[in-house]
C-alpha cells in the first residue's frame, strides 16, 4: 500500500515570532457577576427552555408515534409490571419491611418520574442495593430483638409501623439530598464514581444481599445483625434448625429460574417477550403453599396479611431524619449513580440525550413523593430496565402501565399473595444476584490491564463487605482518589528521541531505531505540575540529564574562587577571609578574567568540577494541563539553575492558558525569557541545530598548571598558564 506523504514549508517559529506573524484574538472573560446576571436573566426563550427541561414529558410526547409505539409500550409495561411486582415484594425483605410496601415503591415514584425523568427506557422502582442500605438503618433503629431507638414518633406504633416510618423518613431525606443536588446543578458528581468502583461496590452489596437472604431460604429466625460475617456466624449456630421445606422449595425455584433465565438470554433474538419465569414460579408457589397449607403443616414463614389499598400520607419523623442523615447521603448518591449509568446506556443506544441534573431532580421529587405514601428508596434495576427495553418499550408510558399493574395488585389482588412463602422471595432475590456476583471475574482482567484499577475494585469490595456499604463507599472513593493522586504525583516521565526521517519524537525506550542529538536532551512530563509532584519532576529531570545543576553551579563557583584567590594573592597579596555560601548559588561571574573558561576542559587535580556535556535541554509540556503557584516557583528556580550552568532551556507545546498564567504571575525576567518557548518540539530542535552549527568552531581553553597550588606565581601569571586546544563551543579569547 502506497504511503501518503505531506510536505510543509514554513519558518521555524518560536512563540514570540509566531505571535508577531499571527495576531491572536484576546477574548474578554466574563466576571462572576456577569455570569450571575446571565443566569438570572429571563426571557421568553429561556422560560420555554426551562419548562421543557423541567418537564421532559412535553418533548417526547410531541413526537410520540401512536401507531408505531403504543402497542410496544403496552406489551412492555405488562411484562415489566409483572417483574416489578415480584421484585418489589422480594426487595421489601431486604429493607426489613412487610412485602406489601414493595408494591408502593413500584407505584408512587414511577408516577412522578413519568413527568420529570429524561430517560425513556429505565424502569423506576426498588433496587436491591438501596433496599439493603435502607434496611441497615431500619434494623439499627428498630431491631428485631430488643427495644427500638428512643424516638418520640415511635410511641403507639407496632414494630412494622415503626420500620415503615423509618424507611419512609430515610427515603424522604434521600430525596431532599437528590433534589438539592439537582437544583445546585451538581449532577457531575457521578463522574467520581468510576465503573470500577461501582462494580466493586455492587459486588460487595451482592454479598450482603446473599447473606441476608439465607435466613429466609433456610427458614431460620436470625435477628438483624450488622455485617455478613456476624450474620453467617449466627446462621451456622442455628444451621441444625433449618426448615427442610423452605430449603427444598428455594433450591428448586433457584434452579428452575436460573435455567429459564439462561434460555431467555440464549434465545432473546427469537423471543418476542422474555419468559416471566419469576411470575410463573410465584403463582405456582402460592398455589402449592395454599393447597398444602405450608404455614401450619411445615411451619413455613409466609408473606401473611397484605395491605389492601393505599394508606393516607404521613410526614417524615424529624428525629429519624437526624439519626439517619449520615446514611441517607450515600444512599442518594448510589441511587442516582446506578440510575444514571443505566439511563446513559439506553440513551446512547437509542440516540437521545439525558440530563444528569434533571435526573437528580426527577428522582429527588419521586422519592419525596413516594416517601410521603410509605414507599422506600427508588432507583432502577438493570434486569427490570432490560425487560422494559427488550420487550418493545419506547417511552415511560411502559413505566406508567407497569405502575398501574402494581396498583391493581395492591388494591384488588394482594390477598392472593398472602400464602406465598418468604423463602420463595429470598430465592428469587438470590438468583437475580448472578450478574453482580459474576463481577468477580473482573479481578484478573483488571490486574492484567491496570493494577491500580484492580486495587480500587478490591479495596471498595473489601471495605463495603467488612465495614458496611455506607463506610465502604467512602473507602472506595478514598482509594480511587489516592490512585488519581498517585498517577499525577508519580507520572511516567520519559526521554524522547527523533524517529529518523520524520519530525516525530517518541520515548527512546520504545523504538529500535532512534536518533539523539549529542548535547541535547528532550524530557517529557506527562502530567500536570503542582505542589505535590514538583520535587518528583525535579528529581526525574536531574536523573535524565545525569547531573544536578545546582551542585555543578556551586562547584564552578568554588573553583572560580580558588582561581581568583590565587590571582589576587599574586597581584595584590590579598587573601579572602571567608566564603559567602549564598553567593555559590548565583550565576558564575566570569568578568575581569583575562581568559575565557571552558568547564569541560581538563582542570588541575585540586579543582574538581563535574563535566556537563549538555548544551540544550528541551522540556515537552504537551501533556501539562496546569501549573499551580508552587509549581511555577519550583520551575523558575530549576530553569535558572540550568541556565546558570550554560545549558539552554526550551519549553515546547505549552498550553496557551499556561502561557497566560506565566505572564500574569511575572514568571519571566532577565534570565528566563519568552524566547525559550516554542510551539512544537521540532521547531525547538531546528533552532538548536541552527544555533550550534554556527557557533561550532575550535576554541581556546585555559587552565593553570598543577604547580600553582603549591608555588607562588612569579612575574606574569601567564607564564604559569598552559594553552590547551579543545573543540568546544567557546570563542577564542
From TrEMBL:
<dbReference type="Pfam" id="PF01740">
    <property type="entry name" value="STAS"/>
</dbReference>
<feature type="transmembrane region" description="Helical">
    <location>
        <begin position="271"/>
        <end position="292"/>
    </location>
</feature>
<feature type="transmembrane region" description="Helical">
    <location>
        <begin position="69"/>
        <end position="95"/>
    </location>
</feature>
<feature type="transmembrane region" description="Helical">
    <location>
        <begin position="397"/>
        <end position="417"/>
    </location>
</feature>
<feature type="transmembrane region" description="Helical">
    <location>
        <begin position="101"/>
        <end position="117"/>
    </location>
</feature>
<dbReference type="GO" id="GO:0016020">
    <property type="term" value="C:membrane"/>
</dbReference>
<feature type="transmembrane region" description="Helical">
    <location>
        <begin position="163"/>
        <end position="193"/>
    </location>
</feature>
<dbReference type="GO" id="GO:0008271">
    <property type="term" value="F:secondary active sulfate transmembrane transporter activity"/>
</dbReference>
<dbReference type="InterPro" id="IPR001902">
    <property type="entry name" value="SLC26A/SulP_fam"/>
</dbReference>
<feature type="domain" description="STAS">
    <location>
        <begin position="510"/>
        <end position="688"/>
    </location>
</feature>
<keyword id="KW-1133">Transmembrane helix</keyword>
<feature type="transmembrane region" description="Helical">
    <location>
        <begin position="205"/>
        <end position="223"/>
    </location>
</feature>
<keyword id="KW-0472">Membrane</keyword>
<feature type="transmembrane region" description="Helical">
    <location>
        <begin position="124"/>
        <end position="143"/>
    </location>
</feature>
<dbReference type="Pfam" id="PF00916">
    <property type="entry name" value="Sulfate_transp"/>
</dbReference>
<dbReference type="InterPro" id="IPR036513">
    <property type="entry name" value="STAS_dom_sf"/>
</dbReference>
<protein>
    <submittedName>
        <fullName>Chloride anion exchanger-like</fullName>
    </submittedName>
</protein>
<keyword id="KW-0812">Transmembrane</keyword>
<feature type="transmembrane region" description="Helical">
    <location>
        <begin position="455"/>
        <end position="482"/>
    </location>
</feature>
<feature type="transmembrane region" description="Helical">
    <location>
        <begin position="235"/>
        <end position="259"/>
    </location>
</feature>
<dbReference type="InterPro" id="IPR018045">
    <property type="entry name" value="S04_transporter_CS"/>
</dbReference>
<dbReference type="InterPro" id="IPR011547">
    <property type="entry name" value="SLC26A/SulP_dom"/>
</dbReference>
<dbReference type="InterPro" id="IPR002645">
    <property type="entry name" value="STAS_dom"/>
</dbReference>
<feature type="transmembrane region" description="Helical">
    <location>
        <begin position="360"/>
        <end position="377"/>
    </location>
</feature>
<feature type="transmembrane region" description="Helical">
    <location>
        <begin position="328"/>
        <end position="348"/>
    </location>
</feature>
Amino acid at each position: 500500500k502506497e504511503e501518503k506523504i505531506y510536505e510543509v514549508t514554513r519558518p521555524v517559529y518560536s512563540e514570540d515570532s509566531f505571535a508577531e506573524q499571527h495576531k491572536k484574538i484576546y477574548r474578554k472573560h466574563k466576571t462572576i457577576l456577569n455570569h450571575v446576571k446571565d443566569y438570572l436573566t429571563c426571557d421568553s426563550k429561556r422560560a420555554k427552555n426551562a419548562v421543557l427541561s423541567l418537564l421532559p414529558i412535553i418533548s417526547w410526547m410531541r413526537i410520540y408515534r401512536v401507531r408505531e409505539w403504543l402497542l410496544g409500550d403496552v406489551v412492555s409495561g405488562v411484562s415489566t409490571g409483572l417483574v416489578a411486582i415480584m421484585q418489589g415484594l422480594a426487595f421489601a425483605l431486604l429493607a426489613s419491611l412487610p412485602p406489601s410496601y414493595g408494591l408502593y415503591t413500584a407505584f408512587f415514584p414511577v408516577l412522578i418520574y413519568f413527568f420529570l425523568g429524561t430517560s425513556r427506557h429505565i424502569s423506576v422502582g426498588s433496587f436491591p442495593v438501596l433496599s439493603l442500605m435502607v434496611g441497615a438503618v431500619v434494623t439499627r433503629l428498630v431491631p428485631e430483638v430488643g427495644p427500638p431507638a428512643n424516638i418520640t414518633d415511635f410511641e403507639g406504633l407496632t414494630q412494622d409501623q415503626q420500620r415503615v416510618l423509618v424507611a419512609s423518613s430515610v427515603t424522604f431525606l434521600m430525596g431532599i439530598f437528590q433534589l438539592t443536588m439537582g437544583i445546585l446543578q451538581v449532577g457531575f458528581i457521578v463522574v467520581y464514581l468510576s465503573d470500577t468502583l461501582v462494580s466493586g461496590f455492587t459486588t460487595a452489596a451482592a454479598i450482603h444481599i446473599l447473606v441476608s437472604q439465607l435466613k429466609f431460604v433456610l427458614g431460620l429466625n436470625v435477628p438483624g445483625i450488622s455485617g455478613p460475617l456476624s450474620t453467617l456466624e449466627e446462621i451456622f449456630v442455628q444451621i441444625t434448625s433449618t426448615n427442610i421445606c423452605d430449603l427444598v422449595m428455594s433450591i428448586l425455584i433457584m434452579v428452575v429460574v436460573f435455567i429459564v433465565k439462561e434460555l431467555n438470554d440464549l434465545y432473546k433474538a427469537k423471543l418476542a417477550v422474555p419468559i416471566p419465569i419469576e411470575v410463573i414460579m410465584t403463582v405456582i408457589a402460592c398455589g402449592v403453599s395454599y393447597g398444602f397449607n405450608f404455614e401450619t403443616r411445615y411451619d413455613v414463614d409466609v408473606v401473611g396479611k397484605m395491605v389492601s389499598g393505599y394508606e393516607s400520607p404521613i410526614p417524615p419523623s424529624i428525629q429519624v431524619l437526624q439519626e439517619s442523615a449520615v446514611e441517607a447521603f450515600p444512599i442518594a448518591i448510589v441511587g442516582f449513580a446506578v440510575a444514571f449509568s443505566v439511563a446513559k446506556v439506553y440513551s446512547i443506544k437509542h440516540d437521545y440525550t439525558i440530563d444528569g441534573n434533571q435526573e437528580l431532580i426527577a428522582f429527588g421529587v419521586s422519592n419525596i413523593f413516594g416517601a410521603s405514601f410509605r414507599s422506600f428508596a427508588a432507583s432502577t434495576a438493570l434486569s427490570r430496565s432490560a425487560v422494559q427495553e427488550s420487550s418493545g418499550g419506547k417511552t415511560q408510558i411502559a413505566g406508567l402501565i407497569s405502575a398501574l399493574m402494581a396498583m391493581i395488585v395492591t388494591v384488588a389482588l394482594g390477598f392472593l399473595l398472602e400464602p406465598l412463602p418468604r423463602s420463595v422471595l429470598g430465592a428469587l432475590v438470590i438468583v437475580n444476584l448472578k450478574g453482580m456476583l459474576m463481577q468477580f471475574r473482573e479481578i484478573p482482567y483488571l490486574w492484567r490491564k491496570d493494577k491500580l484499577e484492580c486495587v480500587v475494585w478490591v479495596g471498595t469490595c473489601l471495605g463495603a463487605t467488612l465495614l458496611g456499604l455506607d463506610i465502604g463507599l467512602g473507602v472506595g472513593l478514598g482509594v480511587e482518589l489516592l490512585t488519581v493522586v498517585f498517577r499525577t504525583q508519580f507520572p511516567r516521565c520519559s526521554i524522547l528521541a527523533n524517529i529518523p526521517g520524520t519530525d516525530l519524537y517518541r520515548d527512546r525506550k520504545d523504538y529500535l531505531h532512534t536518533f539523539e542529538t549529542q548535547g541535547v536532551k528532550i524530557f517529557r512530563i506527562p502530567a500536570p505540575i503542582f505542589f505535590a509532584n514538583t520535587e518528583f519532576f525535579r528529581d526525574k529531570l536531574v536523573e535524565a540529564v545525569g547531573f544536578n545543576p545546582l551542585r555543578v553551579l556551586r562547584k564552578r563557583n568554588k573553583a572560580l574562587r580558588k582561581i581568583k584567590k590565587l590571582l589576587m594573592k599574586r597581584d595584590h597579596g590579598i587573601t579572602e577571609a571567608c566564603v559567602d555560601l549564598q553567593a555559590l548559588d548565583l550565576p558564575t561571574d566570569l568578568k575581569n578574567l583575562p581568559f575565557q573558561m571552558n568547564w569541560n576542559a581538563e582542570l588541575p587535580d585540586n579543582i574538581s568540577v563535574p563535566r556537563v556535556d549538555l548544551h540544550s535541554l528541551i522540556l515537552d509540556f504537551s501533556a501539562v494541563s496546569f501549573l499551580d503557584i508552587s509549581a511555577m516557583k519550583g520551575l523558575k528556580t530549576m530553569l535558572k539553575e540550568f541556565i546558570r550552568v550554560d545549558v539552554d532551556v526550551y519549553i515546547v507545546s505549552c498550553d496557551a492558558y499556561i502561557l497566560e498564567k506565566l505572564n500574569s504571575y511575572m514568571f519571566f525576567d532577565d534570565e528566563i525569557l519568552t524566547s525559550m518557548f516554542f510551539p512544537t518540539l521540532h521547531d525547538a530542535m531546528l533552532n538548536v541545530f541552527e544555533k550550534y552549527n554556527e557557533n561550532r568552531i575550535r576554541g581556546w581553553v585555559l587552565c593553570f598548571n598543577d604547580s600553582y597550588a603549591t608555588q607562588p606565581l612569579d612575574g606574569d601569571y601567564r607564564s604559569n598558564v598552559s594553552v590547551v586546544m579543545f573543540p568546544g563551543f567557546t570563542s577564542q579569547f
